[in-house]
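Please fill in the sequence for the structure shown.

STRUCTURE ENCODING:
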């Protein structure tokens, strides 16, 4: 029986497509990181790179391109071929900025395809151990602050923590007085000394002081308690229902990357974060693993962009404050 030529062509096309999909990855992969070596995002990228190398049998290179707002790294990946070989590993601070700079000529929703999240780091609200604040839990502090609008101070050391504390103000119906610092260390020193009443900071930055009882942990900002500090309740369970904030680290690819490649990369992230050794490394960094599908991760990015823009506009907060 003679097989029609069009069926032969279709079969060859399907074979070539399947072969191409099976071939990924066939060469080294590059993780572009918009931060200097040694920080949380860089270390996370290197942990994932090591796992991907083991899983795929291909070299994974971490390419650090530090710049304000991660502009260089974002630009490199946005302009790269959508083939899965150049990927951005970045944080929520980079991907969900509520006030993108004018020279950012790409869009984290339109210019990229979400791959997946790897970890989540909560913020934590901590307080001085000096009276009268020392004896108050979160609900009691909220009541105390309602009776003293603008008198209870809260230290912060950046735009991200400022937005989180403003979310507390909005949802709790209080007016904590923001006290900006140029770094977390001097803010923590003043909190320990009683110069400020409370502080919003990354959990990892406060674990030592909480463990030594130099400050008191009031609540973490993620919906689930952190495995790093399981004794500290969440804002949600403390009465601010639905309160959620945190810093995620995840991966995105250039827009147009084939869905099969995205699924392969997402599966590799899931295999990595389900490894006990990697979970332990993340906990040492003050983070928990976070498993998402590409669709869930994309929804997180889009939702956070809208959420934090509303918070910033309602509070009248600018990025340099």
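FILLED IN BY: designer on duty
SEQUENCE:
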């Amino acid at each position: 029986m003679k097989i029609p030529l069009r069926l032969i062509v279709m079969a060859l096309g399907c074979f070539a497509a399947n072969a191409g999909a099976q071939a990924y990855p066939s060469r080294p992969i590059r993780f572009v990181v918009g931060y200097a070596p040694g920080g949380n995002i860089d270390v996370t990228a290197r942990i994932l790179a090591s796992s991907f190398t083991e899983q795929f049998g291909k070299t994974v290179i971490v390419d650090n391109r530090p710049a304000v707002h991660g502009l260089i790294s974002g630009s490199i990946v946005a302009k790269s071929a959508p083939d899965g070989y150049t990927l951005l590993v970045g944080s929520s601070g980079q991907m969900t900025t509520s006030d993108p700079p004018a020279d950012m000529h790409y869009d984290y929703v339109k210019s990229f395809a979400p791959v997946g999240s790897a970890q989540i780091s909560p913020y934590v609200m901590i307080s001085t151990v000096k009276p009268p604040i020392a004896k108050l839990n979160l609900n009691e502090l909220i009541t105390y602050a309602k009776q003293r609008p603008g008198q209870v101070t809260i230290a912060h050391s950046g735009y991200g923590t400022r937005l989180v504390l403003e979310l507390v103000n909005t949802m709790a119906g209080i007016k904590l007085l923001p006290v900006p610092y140029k770094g977390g260390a001097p803010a923590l020193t003043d909190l320990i000394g009683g110069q400020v009443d409370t502080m919003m900071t990354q959990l990892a930055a406060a674990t030592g002081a909480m463990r030594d009882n130099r400050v008191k942990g009031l609540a973490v900002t993620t919906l689930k308690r952190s495995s790093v500090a399981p004794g500290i309740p969440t804002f949600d369970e403390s009465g601010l229902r639905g309160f959620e904030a945190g810093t995620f680290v995840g991966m995105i690819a250039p827009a147009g990357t084939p869905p099969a490649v995205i699924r392969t990369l997402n599966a590799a992230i899931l295999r990595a974060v389900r490894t006990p050794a990697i979970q332990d490394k993340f906990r040492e960094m003050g983070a928990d693993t976070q498993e998402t599908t590409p669709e869930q991760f994309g929804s997180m990015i889009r939702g956070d962009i809208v959420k934090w823009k509303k918070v910033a506009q309602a509070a009248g907060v600018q990025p340099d404050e």
